Amino acid sequence: MTTSWLVTGARGLLGRDVLAELGADPEAAVTGLSRDQLDITDPTAVRTAVDGHRVVVNCAAWTDVDGAEQAEAAATAVNGTGVRHLARACADSGAVLLHISTDYVFPGDARQPYPEDAPTSPVNAYGRGKLAGERAVAELLPRTGCIVRTAWLYGAHGSNFVATMLRLAAQREMLDVVADQHGQPTWSRALAGQLAVLGRAALAGRAPAGIYHGTAGGHTTWYGLARETFRLSGLDPERIRPVGSVAFPRPAARPAFGVLGHSSWPRTGLVPLPRWDAQLTAALDTPAFAALAAAARSSS
Questions:
Q1: Residue 14, Cα to own-chain centre: how many angstroms?
Q2: Domain contains 37
């Protein structure tokens, strides 16, 4: 039986991988809508787009964390109010909603991974807007809404830390990288596969509504991620120097510890994502990253 899926934010880093993942499934009929094709702040457009789909994967988001500090109302219109429109449309149509959220809903002052039910307390405008979206899903879709928090996403499409490190490796001898922020680097392709599994399980009644942490296992720092990226790419990791966050002042505060726990997956019989270093190894073996690494090696 064919299942109809809608992917919003379909031209973004994650959205493009979700489209590719679902496109390989002969039992999935997939509609992908970019920001230009669907403005989720328009409730009428959202209702029309959702109609007829059984699963909606919301990858649409305001992702400019620093920009949200100067434009919190605009960011929250997308990350909060827009998500409410999607949740309401899914509630009316009976569709399952997989909504992508963030570790930034937490303050970052923990010493152990945040469980799914840990109290939230964002430290920046972006996190507050994303939390508003989470609350809309929980309120309107108590039985068919899945909130999937992720963090430190990188992939073949769009701007991301791993690609930036490889590009800079071709331009600079030494790189200063923050060593006092801890998180879970997560490959967008791996997360896309996990979302497909979760959507199928939710439709089958095997995965209940609620919060899931879609991040890699283990954790590291930006400094640790940069060094491992260099090492796996045949570059000298000693070219990476550790610095504190104060070396790169930003308009938006960043949580110092954004590590998430993964208890929801085993409770539903689903396997959490692999460790961050295993994901990175697989990602760097793909053509897009291999080409960046080759260019960096040839310039050194």
A1: 7
A2: yes
Contact, 188 vs 283, CB < 8 A? Answer: no
Strand positions, DSSP E, 10-95: 28-33, 55-58
Q: Is residue 135 part of a domain?
A: yes
Question: Residue 248 and residue 178: Cα distance in Å, rounded?
Answer: 8
Structure tokens given for 187: 């490959």
Task: Tell me which residue of 132, 120, 30 sits closest to 78, measured CA to CA.
Answer: 132
- Give the catalytic positions in this structure: 126
Report if residue 169 sits inside a domain: no
Structural domain count of the chain: 1
- Could you tell me the pLDDT band of residue 158, with boundaries at 50, 70 and 90? confident
pTM: 0.97
Q: Euclidean distance between the first and final Cα of the chain, in Å?
A: 53
Domain that holds residue 211: 3-159+184-218+257-274
Whether residue 241 is contained in a domain is answered as no
Report the CATH number that the domain containing residue 86 is assigned in CATH: 3.40.50.720
Q: What are the pLDDT digits (tens) for 92-131?
A: 999 999 999 999 999 999 999 999 999 999 999 999 999 9
Query: What confidence tens digit (pLDDT) does each residue in 174-208 have?
Result: 999 999 999 999 999 999 999 999 999 999 999 99
d(CA 158, CA 97): 24
